[in-house]
């Protein structure tokens, strides 16, 4: 398949769609109209002043120069780029849902009810006893979970300084542990791509606050020794943290709570199909076992003791807050709608089809996949080709390429997660794109991509001379 | 979709599923799962799958259980009218269903939109670097504190914040500070503004950051920002200023008063009141460029020599720098930033200035009217206000707020005898009703 992305080029100026500022700016004398005294105001404000028709065209053109799930396959490993059901947008657009967060509980019963129900859904799905919806993204969920773990240890008089993380983990895990004030102990992967239990035993001790683990891991492998891993960590007095990025593989077949995990986050924009929005918003609710519930952020939502209605409450030993208000509400509404649409069987089927798709796709491509059996994603290796170049060439064949050069345990990795939304024919298209690009000449790879709005962008040069605003461009 | 009960969002027919299983060489989907029996889940969640129509009806019934109130609420979360064009353009699936621009050649559209968003914030703040979003104002403030900890050479560990600060914002800041072993301390207020003399007395070697807001959480325009900036500079502390893009359209440019970092709630543009969902504004001086948290879009060139955009300076970020990253943030609020940019473009500078001026006049006028009600005094602080202000009531504030709610109006009780009222373009036409209700319940 061939795909020519829409493009708008002003050849005389060597630019694609002009910037809004290039379409005309207006300067307003602020002090002329402001009721405030001059010493409290700025002198003037200069910004673009396009008409609505110009705005409609500008952003429509920009949208046409942007790949999305609705454009075609988007198998970014670890990102779970599922189709985002349209009806969830309509559910979240309900004008009665967009109330102010400081309303009294008695006047916000509808929103509190949805929050309560979603807490219950997520608790069931993860096998967790208590859930907070407040963290606004996966990494914020990690930060929340590790802060909860820290509060738990401090509450019990345990001074622990380390978080253990497998080398193959998401970069956010390491950054989160550091943000929470922990030293990171990096655990090398075993020969089979999983946690090396002996290395874990050696790494874990009195200083261990937690082990952060993704399961299946970042090359799609289930940690078969999870029970032993949990015992080792718990015996040392540590807690087991579950990174929910790969939960889509387990829906209905395995629950972190049943595997010994004490605390986890859910990436609802991955597992529960809320739109990724060009980078966000997502949401990263956190679930915990009973022993940790009293440390969760405030407030959570519960049923009133009277039996009718819902109320917010602050857990006894709460860590406080991780978002100024209650998190990314509109995303949480879409999450609820998606889970309710699929139900038990739909969720389990999503996992089954996601795993089926990954395994089928891996069968169809000519690249080697060093580790298995994998689940919803696999890390193929581009071998002696440059994975980033192969990816650029794939762009010419009507697909988005996988995540490249990560995780590092696979050389020239192409981490691929097709999700359940692709059917056989689109997986065949994806495989063809892989195989054509992989087999192409060095020259073709170097020259790629050719059919995208922009040709290959020199990112090194862009970083060497950062120009981060139209003001910076104007100065040149 | 396969048979009944499967996900409606997988296209597989039963025969396709069979063909794919056969191509893999297994006899059923179950064989693809490598989960030991001891930890496998064979129970049920108890969630019945339902139709779109059912769920829409259920949620609509649920949301209708929120009382129909006219909200005069603010304190960090603001509603302004969002033009229809914002929804229609931002909801284009090419924007909404895309993700982070890891392949810039095929993602020019979103990158350019974010570059334009950054540029608008550069104009509003006067600072040369703006990232393309944090989660909200509170987390942006937390990131500013950890940035201060990284860039300041002093051995200090104190972050000074105004006594008038939203409790939730302070709680978030405290969590970010805890990991960096920073402590948060308040400085006092003088009639709704910072008590600059008290602040100057407190500021010393142990301070890494001084935070001030304009408008404050009580809606007061901070009148001595440049002096606060000087106090921070004298202590070799970072000066972080909190604001929002509507207020910044008319208030003093942060760079002109010595702000090193600007944070705030950029969701005042582009988002309706959304039960607290936000958009964290983060801008700073050039010298902190390599310490900025979050994504940055830069301009560069493609192989054809045309201008093109790309995520840049990614070596700051978690996916490359891991535990030495400037922040753990990955997924952010990009789509909300897109909405804010479209909203700002729709208003243009004239519209933004008009909106901000109306926020100043509306607060002043409503404060005067409520202050005239027997048993109430407003504004409590003798300052200029943006959108909101504090009212003193003779009776207990909580009881008054409850009575007002019964009349169909929501306001904030913020102290034993203090209420806070926020007026914007969305509720300006309902002020007569609020004043009448005040007269009724007081």
UniProtKB/TrEMBL annotation, chain A:
One GO MF term: glycine dehydrogenase (decarboxylating) activity
GO CC list: cytosol; glycine cleavage complex
Swiss-Prot/TrEMBL catalytic activity: N(6)-[(R)-lipoyl]-L-lysyl-[glycine-cleavage complex H protein] + glycine + H(+) = N(6)-[(R)-S(8)-aminomethyldihydrolipoyl]-L-lysyl-[glycine-cleavage complex H protein] + CO2
GO biological process: glycine decarboxylation via glycine cleavage system
Residue ranges occupied by any Glycine dehydrogenase C-terminal domain in the UniProt entry: 351-436
Keywords (A to Z) from UniProt: Oxidoreductase, Pyridoxal phosphate
Region span, Disordered: 1-46
Residue ranges with Basic and acidic residues bias: 1-32
Domain Aminotransferase class V: 147-277
Superkingdom per UniProt: Archaea
InterPro entries in the cross-refs: Aminotrans_V_dom, GDC-P_C, GDC_P, PyrdxlP-dep_Trfase, PyrdxlP-dep_Trfase_major, PyrdxlP-dep_Trfase_small
EC id: 1.4.4.2
Classification via NCBIfam families: PRK04366.1
PANTHER family, per the entry: GLYCINE DEHYDROGENASE (DECARBOXYLATING), MITOCHONDRIAL (PTHR11773:SF1), GLYCINE DEHYDROGENASE, DECARBOXYLATING (PTHR11773)
The protein's name in its UniProt record: glycine dehydrogenase (aminomethyl-transferring)
UniProtKB/TrEMBL annotation, chain B:
Keywords: Oxidoreductase
Region forming the signal peptide: none
Transmembrane segments: none
SUPFAM superfamilies noted in UniProt: PLP-dependent transferases
Single Gene Ontology MF annotation: glycine dehydrogenase (decarboxylating) activity
Pfam families: GDC-P
GO process annotations (BP): nucleoside metabolic process
Record-annotated Glycine cleavage system P-protein N-terminal domain positions: 9-395
Protein's recorded name: Glycine dehydrogenase (Aminomethyl-transferring)
């Amino acid at each position: 398949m061939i795909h020519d992305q829409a493009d708008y080029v002003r050849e005389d100026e060597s630019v694609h769609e002009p910037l809004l500022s290039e379409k005309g700016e207006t300067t307003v004398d602020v002090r002329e109209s402001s009721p405030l005294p001059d010493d409290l105001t700025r002198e003037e404000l200069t910004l673009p002043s396009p008409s609505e028709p110009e705005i409609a065209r500008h952003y429509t053109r920009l949208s046409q120069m942007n790949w999305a799930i609705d454009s075609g396959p988007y198998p970014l490993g670890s990102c779970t780029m599922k189709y985002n059901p349209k009806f969830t947008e309509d559910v979240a657009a309900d004008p009665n849902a967009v109330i102010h967060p400081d309303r009294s509980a008695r006047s916000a019963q509808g929103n509190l009810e949805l929050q309560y129900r979603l807490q219950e859904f997520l608790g069931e799905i993860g096998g967790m006893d208590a859930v907070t919806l407040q963290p606004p993204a996966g990494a914020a969920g990690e930060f929340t979970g590790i802060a909860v773990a820290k509060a738990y240890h401090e509450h019990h008089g345990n001074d622990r300084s380390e978080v253990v993380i497998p080398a193959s983990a998401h970069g956010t895990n390491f950054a989160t542990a550091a943000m929470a004030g922990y030293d990171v102990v990096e655990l090398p992967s075993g020969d089979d791509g999983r946690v090396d239990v002996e290395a874990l035993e050696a790494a874990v001790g009195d200083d261990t606050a937690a082990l952060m683990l993704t399961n299946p891991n970042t090359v799609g492998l289930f940690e078969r020794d999870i029970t032993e891993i949990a015992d080792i960590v718990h015996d040392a007095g540590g807690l087991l943290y579950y990174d929910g990025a790969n939960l889509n593989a387990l829906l209905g077949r395995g629950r972190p709570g049943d595997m010994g995990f004490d605390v986890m986050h859910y990436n609802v924009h991955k597992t529960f199909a809320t739109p990724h929005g060009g980078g966000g918003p997502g949401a990263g609710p956190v679930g915990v076992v009973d022993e940790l519930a009293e440390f969760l952020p405030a407030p959570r939502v519960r049923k009133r003791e009277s039996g009718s209605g819902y109320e917010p409450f602050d857990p006894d030993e709460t860590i406080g807050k991780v978002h100024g208000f209650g998190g990314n509400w509109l995303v949480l509404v879409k999450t609820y709608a998606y889970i309710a649409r699929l139900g038990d069987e739909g969720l389990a089927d999503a996992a089954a089809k996601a795993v089926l798709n990954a395994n089928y796709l891996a069968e169809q491509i000519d690249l080697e996949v060093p580790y298995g059996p994998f689940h919803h994603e696999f890390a193929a290796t581009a071998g002696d080709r440059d994975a980033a170049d192969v990816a650029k060439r794939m762009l010419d064949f009507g697909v988005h390429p996988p995540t490249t050069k990560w995780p590092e345990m696979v050389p020239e990795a192409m981490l691929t997660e097709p999700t359940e939304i692709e059917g056989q024919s689109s997986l065949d298209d994806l495989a063809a794109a892989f195989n054509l690009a992989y087999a192409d000449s060095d020259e073709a790879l170097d020259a790629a991509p050719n059919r995208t709005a922009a040709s290959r962008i020199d990112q090194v040069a862009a970083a060497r001379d950062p120009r981060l605003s139209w003001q910076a461009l104007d100065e040149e | 979709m396969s048979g009944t009960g499967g996900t409606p969002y997988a296209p597989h027919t039963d025969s396709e599923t069979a063909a794919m299983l056969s191509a893999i060489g297994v006899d059923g989907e179950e064989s693809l799962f490598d989960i030991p029996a001891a930890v496998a889940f064979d129970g049920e969640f108890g969630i019945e799958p339902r139709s779109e129509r059912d769920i829409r009806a259920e949620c609509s019934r649920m949301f209708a259980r929120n009382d129909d109130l006219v909200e005069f609420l603010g304190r960090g979360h603001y509603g302004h009218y969002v033009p229809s064009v914002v929804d229609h353009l931002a909801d284009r699936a090419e924007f909404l269903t895309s993700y982070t621009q890891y392949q810039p050649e095929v993602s020019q559209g979103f990158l350019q939109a974010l570059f334009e968003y950054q540029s608008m914030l550069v104009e509003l703040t006067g600072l040369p670097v703006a990232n393309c979003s944090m989660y909200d104002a509170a987390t942006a403030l937390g990131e500013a504190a950890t940035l201060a900890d990284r860039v300041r050479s002093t051995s200090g560990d104190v972050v000074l914040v105004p006594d008038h600060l939203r409790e939730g914002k302070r709680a978030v800041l405290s969590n970010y500070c805890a990991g960096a072993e920073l402590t948060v301390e308040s400085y006092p207020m003088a009639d709704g503004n910072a008590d600059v003399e008290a602040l100057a007395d407190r500021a010393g070697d142990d301070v890494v950051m001084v935070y001030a807001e304009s408008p404050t959480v009580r809606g007061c325009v901070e009148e001595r920002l440049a002096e606060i900036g000087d106090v921070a500079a004298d202590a070799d502390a970072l000066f972080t200023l909190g604001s929002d893009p509507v207020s910044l359209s008319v208030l003093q440019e942060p760079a002109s008063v010595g702000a090193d970092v600007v944070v705030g709630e950029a969701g005042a543009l582009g988002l309706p009141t959304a039960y607290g969902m936000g958009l964290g504004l983060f801008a700073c001086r050039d010298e902190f460029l390599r310490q900025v948290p979050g994504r940055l879009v830069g301009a560069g060139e493609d192989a054809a020599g045309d201008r093109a955009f790309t995520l840049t300076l990614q070596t700051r970020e978690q996916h490359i720098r891991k535990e030495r990253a400037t922040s753990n943030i990955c997924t952010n609020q990009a789509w909300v930033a897109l909405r804010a940019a479209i909203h700002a473009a729709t208003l243009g500078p004239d519209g933004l200035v008009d909106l901000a001026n109306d926020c100043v006049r509306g607060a002043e006028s409503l404060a005067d009217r409520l202050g005239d009600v027997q048993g109430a005094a407003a504004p409590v602080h003798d300052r200029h206000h943006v959108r909101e202000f504090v009212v003193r009531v003779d009776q207990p504030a909580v009881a008054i707020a409850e009575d007002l709610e019964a009349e169909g109006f929501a306001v904030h009780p913020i102290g034993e005898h203090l209420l806070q009222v926020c007026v914007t373009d969305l509720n300006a036409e309902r002020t007569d009703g609020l004043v009448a209700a005040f007269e009724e319940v007081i």
